[in-house]
Amino acid sequence: MARRPRDPLDLHGHHIVTSEELHRILRADEPERERNRHRHRLLHGLVLVLTLVVLGSALVLVLAMVQGYRPFPASAPSTSASATPRPTVDAAGCPIDPVVPAAAGRVRVGVFNATTTPGLAASVAARLRERGLEITAVGNRAVEDRAPVVVVAGRAGRSAALTVQRQLPGSVYREDERSGTAVDLVLGTRFRQLTDAGVVDTTGSGRLSCGR
Questions:
Q1: How far is CA 95 from CA 158, 159, 174, in A?
Q2: Which of 16, 85, 111, 151 is 20 to 30 A (C-alpha) from 162?
Q3: Could you give phi then psi for residue 19, rounded to 5 degrees?
Q4: Is residue 176 a part of any domain in this protein?
């Protein structure tokens, strides 16, 4: 029997791909590769466009915020923060809230005579000094208030003023714009005497009396 001619493109049972066959395969795959390249170009283009949009939006937002624009409304202030502060004095200017009297040794008071009685301020000052108050001044002063005794202090001196006021029956409190805790005591023509030291309340809180 004659031997069948050997196929030159067969090598141990495997077909050898020729250059012509390879070109034919590549040409057949070219449309698919072109579609893949097209999809990749579209994807890259989309990513680039989205990146530019994000960067552009961020730039616009930054410029707007520099000019005062706020993308989110400011949170509404709490009721406690937006409410009108409760006044500390009444319509007549008298403090509303009770205060604790200051210790006598922490009270600095100037005593002034608004009468024609010689030595009145010095006499009262000496007795207050005996009760532990620090006397800062003694002198004369005119006053238009008709109260027997006027106790004058600033807001920070309310506790000290209560300590002084409890020493003098019928005294009235007047508040001015001074800073610090210093108190002025002005003795009027209707002043008679100090409260007995044994009955003066030196610790209990209370409201200042404005006599109005």
A1: 9, 11, 10
A2: 85
A3: -65, -35
A4: yes
